[in-house]
Amino acid sequence: MSLSLTSSLRRLMDLKTYKIERRQLCSWPVTLIRHRWMRNRPSVCLYNLSRKMSTEKEKEKIDMSRFPVENIRNFSIIAHVDHGKSTLADRLLEITGMWHVTECNKQVLDKLQVERERGITVKAQTASLFYNHQGQTYLLNLIDTPGHVDFSYEVSRSISACQGVLLIVDANQGIQAQTVANFYLAFEAQLTIIPVLNKIDLKNADPERVESQIEKVFDIPKEDCIRISAKMGTNVDQVLEEIVKRIPPPAARTEDPFKALVFDSTFDHYRGVVTNIALFGGQVSKGDRIMSAHMGKVYEVNEVGVLRPEEHPTDRLYAGQVGFMIAGMKEVKEAQIGDTLFHQKHPVEALPGFKPAKPMVFAGMYPMDQSEYNSLRSAVERLTLNDSSVTVQRDSSHALGAGWRLGFLGLLHMEVFNQRLEQEYNASVIVTAPTVPYKAILSSAKLIKAGPVPSTEEPVHLTPKHFHLIFLILYQEHGGKEITIVNPAQFPDRSVVSEYLEPMVMGTIITPDDFIGKIMTLCLGHRGVQKNVVYIDNQRVMMKYLFPLNEVIVDFYDHLKSLSSGYARQDTVYAGYQPAELVKMDILLNGKSVEELTMVVHKDRAYAAGKALCERLKDCIPRQLFEIAVQAAVGSKVIARETIKAYRKNVLAKCYGGDITRKMKLLKKQAEGKKKMRRIGNVEVPKDAFISVLKRKDK
């Protein structure tokens, strides 16, 4: 018995009877061991622990002091949407040996779920690369930026921490609208611009044509362009060499006092606020006591390090380097984007920081249930820490309860913010229809007569009449000044305003010349004014139109793509305010105004907007025992109406023949009852109706 057991064990332990395979599973090399007689049994999977342990040792050995300022290059990747920024970032990570990119982990720097689902970059990400060139090791700090116009604030913040950019242009599509916008962001910041033509492996790629476009539009010589294929890895080595040669090192000195710029931050539930910093002088290490120029508070540094692209702790960070820092900030408001950090004992002059973002689209946000208000407030605060371009103001509604009015840079920005709330914080919200900020120039104080003001001793809900009285008082004190209106319910009456102003944007449209006629008709239909038309090559046209912002935020881009079979591209830039004939349109239910449905429209569009909203309300509001009149009114004039018929009992059912006067008496009695019920009854708009009417439907 013992001999048979011994022989069985020897057979089991004999490596010759095993089938051993080495495979690459995602980013880790693994060893698969399967016994030859275990065909239908699961195999043993062993990770290559030696490689993992060597990586851990490698982390411990990194000394950031061996990278002097002259061996540091800070750069961003900027481009239009879908021109290959994230793919190029993957190749750079792979070539420098920092990450092994496979099918399992493509687009390494797109970490958010919303980025994976939509296939776009919405958040700038940082990664530090080590590159050996001509016997020297260089530290390349890469920042991958979004390409959509709604996230241009991410691009502008990333540029502040760089000395150069890679301008990626698709060799097939050529220069697009956002390519132009991003170029001028880098040009105004006086950064070194390296043009890179991507996707030269495509069948329809035309690098010569695109190089001519770059030379004509940006005045960059053709010889400076680098032709690559990020997907295939063609000529990507040349990109790294040109980064080292062309982009200058940061203008910072280690001997100076510590001074760092906070250009991004995130919130960790266990460690608090994690800030991304760019050092403009000195050095910082764990245990240092630093001070915030914005808050004036003192913090002790708990951890510093670099991003590769995951957090990689180091002993110190030195001048010119980019990394992360954790300093025990527990409150969201303590981490201000654009803040300057310095040593407590060595105060320095604060850095200029960033220009505050200008919200172009406003929307109300309310919890589905008021019991979730506190948790939603915490989620909004933490998400706005990560996305500082969102503005937040408290708001309230009779129908929807307490909430906020949020300002966004565009409609896609609003949708992504809402999606991140749902995915990252499991929050269910109601988002109202998007509006834009209007301005009003107040009339002279001599023309204003103020009425009685509601008492403020007791809390009172402000109705539109109260807003009107408050405006009257403000106008008496500040006659002739401008005010900004972000909530349509607070839109002042024409009698106290000398002029209304609406926001304008300069739209840049690049399209094949086959669609010029259709696109011009579309632009004129949205009150666009043509400013310029330029042929950038033999087949493509760049048109510039001045649009009212309210005309292009919702469905203009969808119509543009439909008319041009998907070839046209658009970019918008804020262009100030212009006078406009604006009116406030109220929605009345049986003569009573519904504040949540009030909107500001152009005078020429009032009837169409009012008719459409009344028709949608007719389908959403449930029938009552009395008739409901749904009206759209501008001032005292009703411009559209829909009627919701009442439930009606057949009072003639018991009449079998007889005189007509008997039937008329019963009908008259029923009509009087309905009239009385309508006079004393209230129409309650259910929350589901508000959601279906106010919430923008996905196209």
Structure description:
With 699 residues, this protein is an alpha+beta fold. It is built from 17 helices and 34 strands. The strands form seven sheets. Strands 14-13-19-10-11-18-15-16 form an eight-stranded antiparallel beta sheet, with helices on one face. It has a six-stranded mixed beta sheet with strand order 5-6-4-7-8-9, sandwiched between helices. A hairpin with a 2-residue loop joins strand 5 (125-133) and strand 6. Helix 9 (373-386) packs across helix 10 and helix 15 (606-620) runs antiparallel to helix 17 (687-694). It starts with a helix and ends in a 5-residue tail after the last helix. The model is unreliable at 15-20, 24-32, 36-59, 445-462, 469-478 and 695-699 (pLDDT under 50).
Q: What is the C-alpha radius of gyration, as a whole number of Å?
A: 32 Å
Strands across the major sheet, in which order? 14-13-19-10-11-18-15-16
What general form does the structure show?
A: globular
Structural class: alpha+beta
Poorly predicted segments: 15-20, 24-32, 36-59, 445-462, 469-478, 695-699
- Which range best describes the helical content: under 10%, 10-25%, 25-40%, 40-55%, 55-70% or over 70%? 25-40%
Number of strands: 34
Largest sheet: 8 strands, antiparallel
Compact description:
Helix content is 28%, strand content 31%. The chain is of the alpha+beta class.
Topology:
Elements: H1 2-13, E1 18-25, E2 28-35, E3 44-47, H2 49-61, E4 72-79, H3 85-95, H4 113-118, E5 125-133, E6 136-144, H5 152-159, E7 164-170, H6 177-188, E8 192-198, H7 207-218, E9 226-227, H8 236-246, E10 259-268, E11 272-281, E12 283-285, E13 289-292, E14 298-300, E15 303-307, E16 311-314, E17 316-318, E18 322-326, E19 340-343, E20 361-367, H9 373-386, E21 391-397, E22 401-408, H10 411-425, E23 429-431, E24 438-442, H11 464-478, E25 482-485, E26 497-512, H12 516-525, E27 529-535, E28 540-548, H13 549-552, H14 556-563, E29 569-579, E30 582-589, E31 592-593, E32 599-602, H15 606-620, E33 628-634, E34 637-644, H16 660-680, H17 687-694
Parallel strand pairs: 4-6, 4-7, 7-8, 8-9
Antiparallel strand pairs: 1-2, 2-3, 5-6, 10-11, 10-19, 11-18, 12-17, 13-14, 13-19, 15-16, 15-18, 20-22, 20-23, 21-22, 24-25, 24-26, 26-28, 26-29, 27-28, 30-31, 30-32, 30-33, 33-34
